Amino acid sequence: MKSILYKTGKLFTMLFILGFAFGSCVDDFELPEAGSIADATLPSAGFSFSQTDPEDFRVVTFTNESASATMYNWNFGAGNSTEKNPSFTFEGEGTYTVSLSVSDANGVTDAITKTIDVIKPEEPDAIVPTVNNGDFTGGQDGWKFESFTGGTTSPYNSSSDGSPIDYDGNDTGAKTAGAKWTNGTSAAHLLSSSSRFAYQAFQVSANTTYVVEWEHSIKNDKDDVTGGDRVVLNIIDGHYSDGKDALSAPIIVESVGDVAIGKGNFTLLKAEFDSNESGQIAIWMYGVTSEDAYADNIKLYPKE
Question: Which domains does the chain have, with CATH numbers?
């Protein structure tokens, strides 16, 4: 007797046919299921990748571009995944080999291997802000608050007794425009509705070291002002539309100009500070003087 195995998809039908010699071997024949057609869409493996995490360059996101596949097996060298579109954190900068093996419901497989480069991106250049009217040639332009509840939006007294050094660092040999404070416009313990505060907001790079540079002059320090005659320049945290809110703003750095060597004799000051998380800062400046105090040539730039 001989048996013939007809394989028809998932169903196997065993038929026994008489007439053959006893003890003959059994042969298997695989027959296609009625109406079946050949699989014309075999799986094809493919993927792309990118570094998309702004906080950690080592994280690589993989985009599965395989066709006609239902199962995925990733090999990252130091780890594996069966997700369709996984992310993987590599050890650091370097060249890595990544393999993807895919299969379909019929168990047909395909694989692809790629070499990828994980690169630490270059740090972007720090923002170099522009101090609007930093040389005060434009009068009070650029230094006014939109509003000042209980105070004045006038930032200082415009003056022709500024530094003889122009904004580019050249000695002009003559006075230039500047900012001026008097006893009546002073702040601190002399604070009144007439006190004048110069204010200008900036967007800088976050968590970056900056330098604020400026010049000041004091007409005469007679020790008749508590704390001495001075001009104060603060870098404050945040942006403010109303001057009253800036009065209590957190101070990132304070630079005090208190060198009193006479009107027209300016002293250069520089103060370093680290910017905040938001990069939103502002210059907040005022005078405390019994007579006259001046400021000029204010600059703000990243530390080299």
Answer: 1-37 (no CATH), 47-118 (2.60.40.10), 157-302 (2.60.120.680)
And the tokens for 191? 């604070």
Q: Look at residue 184 and give its three-state secondary structure.
A: helix
Q: Are 210 and 187 in contact (CB under 8 A)?
A: no
Query: E-assigned strands of 167-224?
Result: 178-182, 198-203, 209-218
For tokens 């900068």, what's the residue? Answer: 93
pLDDT surpassing 80 at residue 148: yes
pLDDT of 3: 36
- What distances in angstroms separate CA 64 from CA 67, 101, 108, one per listed residue? 9, 11, 18
Question: How many angstroms separate the CA atoms of 176 and 285, rounded?
Answer: 19
Query: CA Rg, the chain, in Å?
Result: 39
Task: Answer whether residue 291 shows pLDDT above 50.
Answer: yes
Structure tokens at 211: 């330098």
User: Which run of H or of E encompasses 302?
Assistant: strand 292-302
